[in-house]
Each structure stands twice: as C-alpha cells, then as structure tokens.
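Hi team, as promised in this morning's meeting, here are the two structures we talked about. I've kept the exact order from the run log so nobody has to guess. The first one is mostly here for context; it's the second one we should focus on when we meet again. Sequence first, then the predicted structure tokens.
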Amino acid sequence: MLSALPRGSPEDGYLRLNWSALREASLVHLFSGLDLEYDPPPRCGEVTGFISGYTEWVSREEPSISLGWDWRLDVETGLPQLAVASVRSNVMLVDDEQADLGVSITMHLLNKRLQLLDWEATVAAALGMRRYG
C-alpha cells in the first residue's frame, strides 16, 4: 500500500506522494507500442528517419501510480531511449510539509525515477526487438 496523501482537489486527478514513496514504488511494465504514423510518411524505398513508440508502467501497490512516456530507437544500441524528457503521470510530488512541489519539479523527478528502471530492455523485449551492433 502506497502512502498517498489525500491533499488537493479530488477533481485534479493527482496521486500525491513524496519522493521516497515514488522512488521505492514497485513499477511494472503494462504495455508498449510502436508509433505507426510518421511525419512525413516514408516513400517506397526510403528509410525512415527513426522508429518511435510509447510505453506505460504502473505500480504494483494501490493506489496505482501510472507513468507513460515516448521513446525513440537508438540506432547505436538497438534499444529504445527516452524521446522527450516529459513523463505523463497521475503523480504530484509533495515536500515534507505535504505541499505540492509543482509540475516542473515533479516532471524533473519523474524523469529521474525512470533512470531507476530497466525499462529499455523490457520495452525492447515486449516489442520483439533484437539488439544489434
């Protein structure tokens, strides 16, 4: 059971946690997929500029943390890498006095939390990608 704080508007949709609770939460892979739309779409015989996708992870504990982000395939390693340093989530981090840290700091720390996951290999395996190089 996560020690979430029932602070803030119930309509805002945020699960309020401190950094320690987020860091220690057990996150598991829910699903991943490939982006099927290209801008612009490649023409016959053209190599796509990149392969990209998305992934969603959730906590094992209740209430459920949800983290999702976009990735691009790293052509050097054959593994997905974070495409944009912005995570979609239902989490708002709070300080020791249980005041919201705000969107910017929360996003920074959510991105830091991703560094604690072995998400790249998990996403690659889920999509049947093989390492090369």
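And here is the second protein, the one for discussion:
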Amino acid sequence: MKKFVLTAVLIGIYFNLSLAFENVSAEKFRELMKRKDVIILDVRTPQEYEKDGHIKGANLLPVQLFQYIYLAGLRDKDVLVYCRSGKRSVEASKMLEQMGLKKVYNLKGGIKEWKSKGFPVEYGWK
C-alpha cells in the first residue's frame, strides 16, 4: 500500500511539474488580459502577426527565437501565450516554465478560437 501511495504522489508531482501552465478558453484569456502587469506573447511569425491579425497589446516573440532568449525577468508576471491554433504556444509555454515562469496561460485553440468568438484583433504593426 505504501508503494502505491508513493507512486501516486510521484506521478502527481511529475504531471504538475510538466504541465504547470494552464490551457484556457478565449473567454478566460480575455479576462486574464485585464490583470495588472500581464504580458501577452504572440509566438507566431512576423508575417502571421501582421497579416492574420493579433490581439491588442500582444508582443511578437516567435517560438523559433525561444532557444536564444531567457525571460526569467517575467517570473512574477502573468504571461499569456497564443499562436495560430494552440500548438506552438503549448511548446512556448513549456519553454517558459523551464525558464522558471510560474503563471503561464496558453490560449487553447489559438487566435483562430479568439476570432471565432468575435473578439477584436488588430492588423499591421501598431
């Protein structure tokens, strides 16, 4: 019985550490944007950011550049991450956690989901 409990605890710790970021709906993402000192990261390409639209206030930081940067200064901030469909942003969210960030939120379904809800986007460079 003790081995079972220990195994269950270790599995729980593993999954909590490996999936500490939270996948959130477009509605929840929009609510999180209202928090103080929130950082919004668009991890798509510059072409996607400009032509397909982006969420107001988003900082473009393509996931391809994550291997060259270190964002530990954002440890105490809420970091909201999105891409086109939610796949690259999951990769980016995991990398942010590896950098020590604790409050990372991934937009489930990406900007496609955001747009499907009728939420606003900006186009071009602002």
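Starting points for discussion:
The CA atoms of residues 63 and 88 lie 7 Å apart.
Residues 4-17 have pLDDT under 50 and may be disordered.
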